[in-house]
Amino acid sequence: MLKLENIKKNYSKKMAVDNISFEFNNGVYGLLGSNGAGKTTLINIICGLVKPSGGKVIFNNKDILLDKTILLNSIGYLPQHFSYYPNFLALDFLRYMGVLKGIEENLDEKCEELLKLVGLSKESQNKIKTFSGGMKQRLGIAQSLLNDPKVLVLDEPTVGLDPKERIRFRNLISSLGKERIVILSTHIVGDIESIANEIIILKEGNIVDTGKPTYFLDKLSNKVWEIETDFDSAECLKLDYTVSNQRVNGDKMILRIVSDSIPNGNFKSVTPNFEDVYLYYFPNQGES
């Protein structure tokens, strides 16, 4: 069990994380938020990379911020921008990372097992500079698992991947959540919807809502609407409502609108999706 107790972090006058408390158990947790929501600051605190202004991070009843041994033995981390040595062979890179982490027992065997787990066995003797973006991310997952962590933290792991690699990566993350806590920080709603057991909505350094994916979809029942209208009327509606999608149909515009109440006009209620969920919580913010 991983527990956050009243975690705070302020930079000068800005409160990046504001008194967050939460309890994690085995499974995949999605941190969803826009730019500046506090996602990266929070996971950096969990990983011991940033010292909080207040609060505790408790793992198995011990404060991991006070005992770096617990931190090194318990947490695996894949940052958004992970640095590689391009001329290293994949297997040599894992060996190198294992030595840095102080792993001595059966290191070669462990490296080979992890390359097999992430689907890179055939590429173990290839230089990293020849890898695609998805292959590099899978290698990053492998290095984060070298110490067999009970807590795995992933910061925007699928950014820049093509659809096929994103699906492959999501399947891998989902399988890893069976025996450990996986904390996935992202703004890509498709990743959250596909693999998260529980979603945590962060906004301005606060947790504003949590629940299973079905909870959020149920919450938006009768709050997502569509209308087919002329272009001039569509432009007026876009000024007054949060639009999650628009498409042209001949000389008409079809708008998808997220609203707590039915808008004026010939609207029909439609089934919500997670893009609607994102815009419901962050109506005036762009993607992060």
Automatic annotation (TrEMBL):
<dbReference type="InterPro" id="IPR003439">
    <property type="entry name" value="ABC_transporter-like_ATP-bd"/>
</dbReference>
<dbReference type="InterPro" id="IPR027417">
    <property type="entry name" value="P-loop_NTPase"/>
</dbReference>
<keyword id="KW-0067">ATP-binding</keyword>
<dbReference type="InterPro" id="IPR003593">
    <property type="entry name" value="AAA+_ATPase"/>
</dbReference>
<keyword id="KW-0813">Transport</keyword>
<feature type="domain" description="ABC transporter">
    <location>
        <begin position="2"/>
        <end position="229"/>
    </location>
</feature>
<protein>
    <submittedName>
        <fullName>ABC-2 type transport system ATP-binding protein</fullName>
    </submittedName>
</protein>
<dbReference type="Pfam" id="PF00005">
    <property type="entry name" value="ABC_tran"/>
</dbReference>
<keyword id="KW-0547">Nucleotide-binding</keyword>
<dbReference type="GO" id="GO:0005524">
    <property type="term" value="F:ATP binding"/>
</dbReference>
<dbReference type="InterPro" id="IPR017871">
    <property type="entry name" value="ABC_transporter-like_CS"/>
</dbReference>
<comment type="similarity">
    <text>Belongs to the ABC transporter superfamily.</text>
</comment>
